[in-house]
Design a protein that fits this description.
mainly beta, Immunoglobulin-like, 4-stranded mixed β-sheet, elongated
Length: about 300
């Protein structure tokens, strides 16, 4: 990759946003050490740069403050607008004070203004940065597309590029308090294993996946589904229309459920059970060897 005019000035107008590596796993354990370390410049092997640009990158890297151990940060340098597309090319350093190499995956990055207000947000495939060595400052250009930018005038100074931490946390099972109390540790483990076997969600996807049905003595149909939230923000469900199809693709029942509301945390899966009264069933003896739960058209 040739970076041409990027990183050709030794001044910067952006700030740095730092997170602990424990935030990526929702761990409550804080690093026991507060020792400071100084990451050094690590240029991607994909980049073709001139000696002048290498000098600028070394200067900018050396000018960055020390980090505490086990931190990741994004240090903003400059923003340049593409005059043809209107996209913003954000020059920054991805910094790691980890004592081990790290390879990132997809994550949402947020561009913040001087008052910490969000001015742009977009998902990036951070694996493109390659493997980041221990204690490294890797320069990179993050291109925010025009339609992801919420303002018209570029900030002159005091902006920052930050991780949306929730997008870094692995997708997890989130049990409502009623389920948490009712289920045994073994049943909770079974649900977690089920969630881990499901296909990966897209970052902007809300998905329903059925996992259990049963009939009560009265003939009511209980349907348990996973409500899967791939968004990096929580979703509140107040009404949910639901249709159940049998193994032959026939509609067994439809209904609309009022919820109080039901909160689905960002990047989590929540199990929930819906009860269809006997009199609403369209087929009396459905084949439920395979079935589908969906939101009807």
């Amino acid at each position: 990759m040739k970076i041409f005019s990027f990183f050709n000035k030794t001044d910067k107008n952006g700030k740095e946003a730092v997170i602990s590596s424990s935030e990526m796993t929702e761990s409550s354990n804080k690093p026991s050490s507060v020792e400071e370390v100084t990451p050094i410049l690590s240029i991607s092997p994909q980049w073709e740069i001139s000696k002048e640009q290498e000098y600028v990158l070394k200067f900018l890297s050396n000018d960055l403050p020390a980090l505490q151990e086990d931190q990741l940060s994004l240090a903003g340098i400059n923003i340049e607008a593409d005059p043809y597309t209107g996209d913003w090319n954000v020059q920054a350093f991805f910094r790691s004070s980890l004592n081990r190499p790290i390879t990132m995956e997809k994550a949402e990055l947020v561009l913040l203004g001087p008052k910490k207000e969000t001015i742009a947000s977009q998902e990036f495939d951070l694996s493109e940065l390659g493997t980041i060595p221990p204690l490294a400052n890797r320069p990179w250009i993050f291109t925010f597309h025009k339609d992801a930018i919420q303002i018209t005038e570029m900030p002159a100074a005091d902006w920052s590029l930050a991780f949306n931490v929730q997008s870094l946390v692995p997708h997890a099972l989130d049990l409502d308090s009623t389920w948490e109390k009712a289920l045994t540790a073994k049943k909770k483990s079974v649900l977690r294993n089920l969630v881990n076997t499901l296909p990966k969600l897209n970052s902007q996807e809300l998905n329903l996946t059925g996992f259990q049905t049963s009939f009560s003595e009265e003939g009511n149909l209980a349907v348990s589904v996973f409500i899967r939230n791939g968004y990096s923000k929580q979703i509140e469900l107040e009404n949910l229309p639901l249709e159940i199809l049998d193994a032959n693709g026939h509609s067994i029942v439809q209904g609309s459920f009022k919820l109080a509301p039901l909160t689905i945390k960002a990047n989590t899966t929540k199990p929930w059970t819906f009860i269809f009264p006997k009199e609403t069933l369209q087929i009396t003896n459905p084949d439920l060897s395979r079935w589908t739960a969906r939101i009807p058209n």
